[in-house]
Design goal:
- By secondary structure, this protein is of the alpha/beta class.
- It has a single domain, classed as Rossmann fold, CATH 3.40.50.2300.
- Helices cover 44% and strands 18% of the residues.
- It contains 5 helices and 5 strands; from the N terminus they run E-H-E-H-E-H-E-H-E-H.
- Helix 3 links the parallel strand 3 and strand 4.
- The chain is globular and about 35 Å long.
Amino acid sequence: MSQKKILIIEDEQEIADLMSDLLKAENYEVIWIDDGRKGIQKAKQELPDLIVLDLMLHDVHGVNVCKSIKSNESTARIPIMIYTGRMEPGLAQDVIKAGGDLYVSKVTPPSKVVEIIKDLLKQHSK
């Protein structure tokens, strides 16, 4: 079985480093991009098995990044886990409408987030 590739689109380096370290420890290949526009391009280039996407990026809102990835034929099937500190009412629905597969709060313990990622990959395995 080949190594699964995960793209992290996150502008906070500490969070990206923590997620990368945890996922690499589980033998995932991890690519980190720190802004939305580059993240959309990287998704098209790399065709990862899963995307972990922050909503509050400095250039493009994560909902728009999600819409863009899901509206492209080559990347539409890639599961996207929204990983955010924002929890206002209605935001989860916006994310789901944009094509996001899962909405996870950054207050969730990182080890639990890794389990969620594993489950999402299993659900979407080819």
